[in-house]
Write a structure and sequence with these properties.
CATH class of chain B: Alpha Beta
Largest sheet of chain B: 6 strands, mixed
Shape of chain B: globular
Number of strands of chain B: 10
Number of domains of chain A: 4
Strand order of the largest sheet of chain A: 6-8-14-10-13-9
CATH superfamily of chain B: P-loop containing nucleotide triphosphate hydrolases
CATH architecture of chain B: 3-Layer(aba) Sandwich
Number of domains of chain B: 1
Number of helices of chain B: 10
Structural class of chain A: alpha+beta
Radius of gyration of chain A: 35 Å
Largest sheet of chain A: 6 strands, mixed
Order of helices and strands of chain B: HEEEHEEHEHHHHEHEHEEH
Structural class of chain B: alpha/beta
Number of strands of chain A: 27
Number of helices of chain A: 26
Distance between the termini of chain B: 48 Å
Oligomer: heterodimer
Helix content of chain B: 25-40%
Strand order of the largest sheet of chain B: 6-7-8-3-9-10
Radius of gyration of chain B: 18 Å
C-alpha cells in the first residue's frame, strides 16, 4: 500500500508541487515567525547581558519620597561612595555613572534619532572600560565630547568635527575628540550616545559631584554575590541599594521576553490564518487527486483492497507530501526569519546583530504543523475515496461532486453567523477594554459562520455579476454558470481570499478612522500655527517662551505651564497660560460665560466644572505647592478635547509660586501662518537647538499616527502571505475544474469556441470566484472596522467611522489581479487541450 | 437552400478528401492511420463510414471535420481548403459550416436544452433564425422540454437535443461520431430517423461514423474503411447487406 501511495505522489509532479506549496507557505510562516522572534529576543538578551559586562554589582541611591507636593527622587551618590565601593576587598574597580537626555544634531542640524533614544553620559577618567575607544582620546572639559561609532557612521562625523548639541538649556558646540564602540540598546535602536568627561556630565546631566549609579567590577575569583555582601557591609550607613549585574541582566531579559511575546503572538496569528487558509487548499487538492483516480481506486477495491486500505493510502500520500512540505517550509521559514529582520531594519527599527536561532521547538512545530495539517485536510477526501464502489472501475462515472443537500450547512451557518453578529453588536455597547474579548469571540464566530454560509451566498452574489459578464458573450455566461456549479469548492476557494481581505479591510478601516480622528484632535480648537516642545517629551525651559516672544514674526505666544495645586484638598493639575494670547491660539467651544483668562479670571472645562461644582462666576481657591493660596473666579466653561483640558490660569498667577517654572509646550502664532520659512525663523530664534521640536498641526498628527501606520504596513506585508496562499488555492481549483470539464471544453472547441474564448471563460470564472471572496471580505472587514471603532470610539471623542474607499478599491483590484494571475496557467492548459482526446476520454 | 432542386444538390460535393494521409510517429514506430484516402461527401446525402476497429474511420472523420491535422493530401469543405488554415480559422470554419454530434458528453450540463441548441450561434454572436429553429425543434419533438437541464433528460432526449444543436446553425455538413453508441436501440432508432429526415426533408448533408450495421442502414451510402484505406462503397444499404460486408472483413482479417 505504501509503495502505491508513494508512486501516486511521484506520478503527478505538478499537483504535488501545488499541494507542497500550499503546506509549505503555512509552515514557512510558522517557522519564520519562530525563527525571527527567537533570534531577536536572543540577540536582545545577549546585548543586554553584554550591556552589564562591566557591572558585577550596581549601587544605586534609595528612592526618597517627596515631601508634600514635591516629586520624589533617588538619593544622590557622592564621590566618597565611589571611593568606598572601590576600596572593598573584592572590588577591582568602581565607576560612578551619570546619564541623561542629550540631543545631538546631524550635519543638517536635525536631531539624530527620535528624541527618546538621545542619551548622554560620562566617560570615566582617561580609560573607561565600558566604552572602548576606536579613535581619538578621552574628552576633557566642557568643549569636548565623544560620540559612538554607529552615530559617527550614520552622520559622517569624524574626530575633530564640531557638533551642535543641547541638554536642556542653550545650544553647545563642542568638538569631537574620540569615537567609541558600545552595545547600548538606544544606539542600536537609532539613537545616539554622547559622552562628556565626568565633571561636565555631572554639571549638565545631574548635579555637581553626584552620580546616578556606581558600577563595581569584581576581582577575578570573586563572585557577584560575594562582592554584593561586601558592598552592603561597607555602605550600610548610606541610603543605597545594591543589585548584582546578573540580576539586572535577568530582569532586562525578562522584560524583553515579555515585550517580544506580543509581537510573537501577533505573527503566529497570521501564521495560523495562512495555515487555516492552506487547509482548504490541501483538502481541495486531495479531493481532486481522489476524483482523478476514481477508476484506479475502484479497481483496487475490485481486486480486493479494503476501505481502510484505500483511506490509508490517501493518508500516506498526505504524510509524504506533508513531510516534504514541512522540510522546504522550514528552510523557507529560516529565510523569512532572516528577511523579516532586515526588513524591520529598513523600517526605521534597527535590529540588533546576532545569529539566527533555530530551536528544536521550531523544527518540531514545523513538522507537526506541516504533517498534521496535511493529513487532517486529506482525511475527508480519503474517506470519500474509500466509499468509491468497486463497480466505478467498470463504468464511465466520474466522482460526482457531493450533491448532498446544503440545508444542514446553511442552517448551521446562519445560526453561527447570527450569534457572531449578536455578540459583536453587544460588544460595541461595552467599554473599550471590557468589550475586547467578546468582540474577538464575535468576530471569530461571524467569520466561521460566513465561511459555512459561503456556498449559499455564492449563488445570489455571483448572479449579481451576470450583467457585467454578459458583455463577454458565451464565455461570460459559461464562466458564471461554472463558478456556481460546485458551490462547496467555490466557497472553499473564495474563503481563502475572504479571510485575508476581511483582516486587511478591517485594519484599514480602523486605521483611517483613527487617522482622521487624530487629525481632528490635533486640529480641533487649536489655532496656533506651531507647537514647540522638547524632543524627549520633557518640559521646556521658560526661556524658550521668552525667546519666541521676542521674535518679529510671532503674533501670539502662550506656554502650557503645568502646575500641581490643591482644590478643596484634592490634587489637581492646572495649566498656566498667557491670558492675553490664549484666546488667539485656541478656539474651544464655550459652554457658558466667555473664554477669558487674566488676573484672577480662569476658564474650566466641563468635567472639572462638574466635579468641583463650578459655574460662571464661582469663586474657588487654589493652594499651590508653596502652601500659598490664591482666589480665582470662573470666567467661562469650555468643552475640552484630547490635547488640552482642565483649568487654565494666567501665568502671572502661577509663576510666583514656582521655583522652577517648566513648560510642557509653547504655542505660537505667526504673522503669515504656518510655512517652511516661518518654521525656519522660529527654529533660528531658538538657536537651531536639536533638543527642541517645532511642529505644525500636521507634524503633530503624523507623529501620533506614525506608530500605527508602521503596524499597518507590517500587517499588509504579512497578509501578502495569505494572499499568495489564496492565489495557489484559486489555481488549484481552476486546474481541477478544467480537468473535470475537459470533455465539455473539447466539445466547445469542436463546435466552434476558439482558444481565446476558452481562455476567457476560465479567466472570467477565476475572476468571479476571486471577486466573490473579495466582496465578502470587504463586507466583513467594514463591519469589523465599524464594530472595533465603536469600541475605541467610546474613549475617543473625535472618533468617527471613515471608509477608505480608495484603499478598498485597491483591494478589490488586487483581488481581480489575483484572479487573472491565478487563471494564467489553467486557462492556457484548457486552451491547449487536445480536443479529440478530451472528447474521446471515457 | 431548401428551394434548390434536389437533383442539383445531389451532384454538388459538400466535403472532399483527396489523397489524404495521416501518419503517427516516425521510423519503426510509425503507424499509418490513413493511407491516401480520396472520398467525397455529396450534398443532401447521408453517408455512413464503417470499418473494423483501427481501420481509421474516426480519424478520417476527424480530419475531414477539421478536428485533427493530417500529414498530406487535401481536405475541402465547400470551397475551403483545410490544410492551409490556422487554428483560429479552423475553429471559425467548424463554428459556421460544420455541425457535430458526439457519442457522449455532448451537452453542457449548466445550460438548458434550448441554450444548448443555440450554443453555436451564441458563440458566433449571431441571432438564431427563429423560423428554422422552430422547424428543427418541432422535428425533434422536444418543444415542451426546452427549459430542462440535460440531467433532467433521458439519454435519447439528450442526443436529440444534440442533433437539434447540429441542425440549428444550418451547417454545410454535419459529422456524427458514433451518435447512437451510448443509446438503447429504440432511442438510437429515433435519433437516426431524425438524421435521415434532416437529409430527406431539409436537404442537410450528414456524415456518420458507426460500427453498427443497423445504424448504417439508415444512410444513403456506406463507405468501408480497412487499414486506412477505402475498400468498398455501398449505395442504398440494408442492415443485412452491411453485416455481410463486415463479416468478410473479419474473415479476411483472420486469414491474412
Amino acid at each position: 500500500m505504501f509503495r502505491t501511495a508513494l508512486r501516486n505522489v511521484l506520478a503527478h509532479k505538478a499537483r504535488l508541487l501545488m499541494t507542497v506549496l500550499a503546506v509549505m507557505l503555512g509552515v514557512a510562516f510558522v517557522s519564520g515567525t519562530l525563527v525571527f522572534t527567537n533570534s531577536l529576543s536572543q540577540a536582545l538578551q545577549k546585548q543586554s547581558a553584554k550591556g552589564f559586562d562591566h557591572v558585577d554589582v550596581a549601587v544605586t541611591g534609595e528612592w526618597k519620597e517627596g515631601e508634600g507636593d514635591e516629586e520624589g527622587e533617588y538619593e544622590k551618590l557622592t564621590r566618597e561612595l565611589v571611593d568606598t565601593s572601590a576600596a572593598v576587598p573584592g572590588a577591582a574597580q568602581a565607576i560612578g555613572t551619570v546619564k541623561g537626555f542629550t540631543a545631538l544634531a546631524d550635519k543638517d542640524g536635525k536631531l539624530i534619532g527620535n528624541g527618546f533614544q538621545s542619551e548622554g553620559g560620562n566617560y570615566w577618567g582617561t580609560d573607561d572600560p565600558r566604552f572602548p575607544l576606536v579613535s581619538g582620546r578621552a574628552p576633557k572639559g566642557e568643549g569636548e565630547i565623544l560620540i559612538d561609532s554607529e552615530t559617527a557612521k550614520r552622520t559622517g562625523y569624524e574626530v575633530g568635527d564640531t557638533v551642535r548639541m543641547s541638554v536642556d538649556g542653550p545650544v553647545l558646540e563642542p568638538k569631537i575628540t574620540g569615537i567609541f564602540t558600545t552595545d547600548d540598546g538606544n544606539v542600536a535602536a537609532g539613537g545616539s550616545l554622547t559622552l562628556f568627561d565626568t565633571p561636565t556630565a555631572q554639571k549638565l546631566l545631574a548635579e555637581p559631584d553626584t552620580f546616578d549609579e556606581i558600577a563595581v567590577k569584581a576581582k577575578d575569583g570573586v563572585s557577584d554575590t560575594e562582592l554584593r555582601t561586601q558592598l552592603e557591609d561597607a555602605l550600610s550607613s548610606y541610603a543605597v541599594e545594591t543589585v548584582t549585574g546578573t540580576k539586572l541582566a535577568d530582569d532586562q531579559a525578562e522584560a524583553i521576553a515579555s515585550s517580544m511575546s506580543g509581537l510573537k503572538q501577533g505573527l503566529l496569528v497570521f501564521a495560523g490564518i495562512a495555515l487555516f487558509v492552506g487547509t482548504f487548499i490541501i483538502a481541495n487538492t486531495f479531493t481532486m487527486l481522489v476524483a482523478q483516480r476514481t477508476k484506479e481506486l475502484a479497481l483496487m477495491r475490485a481486486v480486493g483492497a479494503s476501505r481502510r486500505q484505500i483511506t490509508r493510502s490517501v493518508l500516506i500520500e498526505a504524510f509524504v507530501v506533508g513531510t516534504v512540505a514541512a522540510l522546504i517550509g522550514l528552510a523557507t521559514g529560516v529565510g523569512i526569519g532572516a528577511g523579516l529582520r532586515s526588513l524591520m531594519g529598513t523600517l526605521d527599527a534597527p535590529m540588533p546583530e546576532g545569529p539566527l536561532v533555530i530551536t528544536a521547538g521550531t523544527v518540531g512545530s514545523a513538522f507537526a504543523v506541516g504533517i498534521l495539517v496535511t493529513m487532517l485536510a486529506a482525511w475527508l477526501p480519503g474517506r470519500r475515496a474509500a466509499k468509491i464502489p468497486p463497480v466505478a472501475a467498470m463504468s464511465a462515472l466520474h466522482a460526482q461532486p457531493t450533491t448532498k443537500s446544503l440545508v444542514l450547512r446553511n442552517t448551521l451557518g446562519s445560526l453561527v453567523s447570527a450569534a457572531g453578529v449578536a455578540v459583536v453588536l453587544v460588544a460595541t455597547t461595552m467599554d473599550g477594554t471590557d468589550g475586547q474579548a467578546p468582540m474577538g469571540l464575535g468576530a471569530v464566530l461571524l467569520i466561521i459562520g460566513v465561511f459555512i454560509l459561503t456556498p449559499l451566498l455564492s449563488r445570489p452574489l455571483i448572479a449579481a455579476a451576470a450583467p457585467v459578464l454578459r458583455v463577454f458573450g458565451v464565455s461570460g455566461k459559461l464562466a458564471r454558470q461554472n463558478s456556481v456549479r460546485n458551490p462547496r469548492r467555490t466557497a472553499a476557494t473564495a474563503s481563502a481570499l475572504m479571510i485575508g481581505l476581511t483582516l486587511i479591510t478591517g485594519m484599514t478601516v480602523m486605521a483611517s478612522s483613527l487617522q482622521t480622528s487624530i487629525d481632528k484632535m490635533a486640529a480641533s480648537a487649536i489655532e496656533a500655527d506651531y507647537m514647540v516642545s522638547m524632543a524627549n517629551g520633557h518640559n521646556l525651559s521658560p526661556d524658550v517662551e521668552k525667546e519666541l516672544r521676542q521674535s518679529d514674526d510671532v503674533t501670539a505666544v502662550s506656554p502650557l505651564r503645568n502646575t500641581y495645586v490643591r482644590i478643596d484638598g484634592q490634587h489637581e493639575n492646572i495649566t498656566g497660560v498667557n491670558g492675553a494670547a490664549i484666546a488667539k491660539l485656541t478656539e474651544f467651544p464655550v459652554v457658558a460665560g466667555a473664554f477669558e483668562v487674566g488676573g484672577d479670571r480662569v476658564v474650566v472645562d466641563e468635567d472639572d466644572a462638574k466635579s468641583y461644582g463650578l459655574k460662571v462666576g464661582s469663586e474657588f481657591t487654589l493652594t499651590f505647592g508653596d502652601d500659598e493660596q490664591q482666589k480665582v473666579t470662573v470666567a467661562g466653561v469650555y468643552e475640552a478635547n484630547e490635547m488640552m483640558r482642565g483649568i487654565m490660569v494666567d501665568t502671572s498667577v502661577v509663576d510666583p509660586h514656582l521655583s522652577e517654572p517648566a513648560d510642557m509646550m509653547v504655542m505660537v502664532k505667526t504673522a503669515d501662518g504656518a510655512s517652511d520659512a516661518a518654521k525656519d525663523t522660529l527654529e533660528k530664534a531658538l538657536g537651531d537647538n536639536p533638543a527642541i521640536k517645532v511642529q505644525d498641526k500636521q507634524d503633530l498628527s503624523n507623529e501620533i499616527a506614525r506608530m500605527f501606520t508602521l503596524i499597518l504596513n507590517m500587517v499588509y506585508g504579512l497578509l501578502a502571505m495569505a494572499v499568495i496562499v489564496a492565489v495557489l488555492g484559486v489555481i488549484n481549483t481552476l486546474a481541477m475544474s478544467v480537468f473535470e470539464r475537459s470533455q465539455e471544453i473539447g466539445m466547445l472547441r469542436a463546435i466552434g469556441l476558439d482558444r481565446k474564448g476558452i481562455k476567457r471563460m476560465v479567466r472570467l470564472e477565476s475572476l468571479v470566484i476571486s471577486l466573490f471572496g473579495a466582496v465578502l471580505g470587504l463586507g466583513l472587514g467594514v463591519f469589523f472596522g465599524w464594530a472595533a471603532g465603536e469600541l475605541v470610539g467610546s474613549s475617543m471623542e473625535t472618533y468617527e467611522l471613515v471608509l477608505p474607499w480608495a484603499r478598498m478599491g485597491v483591494f478589490l483590484a488586487l483581488a481581480a489581479v489575483v484572479g487573472v494571475l491565478a487563471a494564467l496557467w489553467p486557462a492556457r492548459r484548457a486552451a491547449r487541450m487536445n480536443m479529440l482526446q478530451a472528447i474521446k476520454a471515457e | 437552400m431548401t428551394t434548390a432542386p434536389i437533383a442539383d444538390r445531389a451532384t454538388a460535393v459538400a466535403a472532399r478528401a483527396t489523397e489524404l494521409s495521416k501518419i503517427y510517429g516516425q521510423g519503426e514506430t510509425q503507424v499509418v492511420a490513413l493511407d491516401r484516402v480520396s472520398v467525397g461527401f455529396h450534398q443532401a446525402e447521408f453517408t455512413a463510414i464503417m470499418g473494423p476497429s483501427g481501420s481509421g474511420k474516426s480519424t478520417l472523420m476527424h480530419c475531414v471535420a477539421g478536428l485533427d491535422t493530417f500529414s498530406s493530401g487535401s481536405v475541402r469543405i465547400g470551397e475551403t481548403e483545410l490544410g492551409s488554415l490556422k487554428d483560429k480559422q479552423l475553429t471559425r470554419l467548424r463554428r459556421d459550416k460544420i455541425g457535430f454530434i458526439f457519442q457522449a458528453f455532448n451537452l453542457l450540463p449548466t445550460l438548458s436544452a434550448l441554450e444548448n441548441i443555440t450554443l453555436p450561434m451564441d458563440i458566433a454572436g449571431r441571432k438564431p433564425d427563429k423560423e428554422w429553429l422552430d422547424t428543427v425543434i418541432r422535428m425533434i419533438g422536444l418543444a415542451d422540454r426546452l427549459g430542462h437541464r440535460p440531467a433532467q433528460l433521458s439519454g435519447g432526449q439528450q442526443q436529440r437535443v444534440a442533433v437539434a444543436r447540429a441542425l440549428a446553425s444550418r451547417p454545410d455538413i454535419i459529422f456524427g461520431d458514433e451518435p447512437t453508441g451510448n443509446l438503447d436501440s429504440r432511442s438510437g432508432a429515433e435519433v437516426l430517423g431524425f438524421l435521415r429526415n434532416s437529409v430527406r426533408e431539409l436537404g442537410q448533408t450528414v456524415v456518420m461514423v458507426t460500427h453498427d450495421p443497423v445504424a448504417a442502414a439508415y444512410a444513403d451510402r456506406v463507405v468501408f474503411l480497412a487499414d486506412g484505406r477505402i475498400v468498398d462503397e455501398m449505395h442504398g444499404p440494408t442492415a443485412d447487406s452491411v453485416l455481410d460486408r463486415m463479416k468478410r472483413f473479419d474473415a479476411k482479417g483472420r486469414t491474412s
